[in-house]
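quick one: heme C bound model?
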Amino acid sequence: MNKAILRFLAGMVCFWLGISVSQAAGDSAAGKKKFYTCEGCHSVAGYTNTYPTYHVPRIGGQHADYVVSALKAYREDERKHGSMKSNVDNLSEQDMEDIAAYVSKFRGMNSSLPVTGDIQAGRTKAAMCASCHAEDGNSENNMFPRLAGQYESYLLRALHDYKSGARANPMMMGFASTLSEQDMKDVAAFYSSQKKGLTIPQD
Ligand code: HEC
Ligand code: HEC
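yep, here:
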């Protein structure tokens, strides 16, 4: 191959990489503004959903890619929640990327939360979850949501929803179906009590 062709190919690769990088990265300053309508629920410590009662999830420090995929799941009705649906309906792809860039930067700022389940039992039972969510729930892989520092009541809610099929994710439905009610309470307590995890996005 002659040098001109090689240079051309190298240029194409850089061009392509440049495009994929710029597509992946949201603008966190723009995201902060767009997050305004979300703050009333997601930036208030200990805020709960009205009915059924469980904590509004902590999304500060969550992987940006997972945040985008969760928002799309509400838009596509794969996850059902009235106010989340109406909040995402008007968001463009860029809005979602920007918001995800903003919330994901609040990394590991909280300490662990008080829990009701059995943390030690949960630690043992969570061993089979570690390959994806990491041992302490602080997965570094974008594909797998962080669980450390998440509210216990929300984790429990999510596991119930996978087990009942209300939240249809084939992978997690399989894992949740192996857990008893007590197992769910214990693993939720374990992840919730882990440090350096999720927090509330608040400047
Ligand atoms: C009225 C309160 C409320 C408002 C406003 C709201 N949310 Fe939510 N949000 C919730 C609740 C409750 C859930 C959990 C729903 C469920 O069980 O699936 C949730 C779930 C989420 C999740 C999924 C978290 C996870 O771990 O899977 C993301 C991401 C999210 N919201 C982002 C946003 C964004 C971005 C906005 C603004 C555009 C917003 N929310 C506005 C209450 C709210
Ligand atoms: C093979 C990989 C894998 C394993 C093993 C796994 N998970 Fe997951 N988990 C995922 C993926 C992917 C998601 C996101 C699914 C979605 O978008 O709903 C998820 C989501 C979750 C959520 C919801 C998080 C949120 O913010 O809403 C909880 C809770 C959870 N997993 C707990 C567990 C527990 C407990 C175990 C072990 C019993 C486990 N997972 C094992 C891949 C895995």
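The two ends are 54 Å apart (CA to CA).
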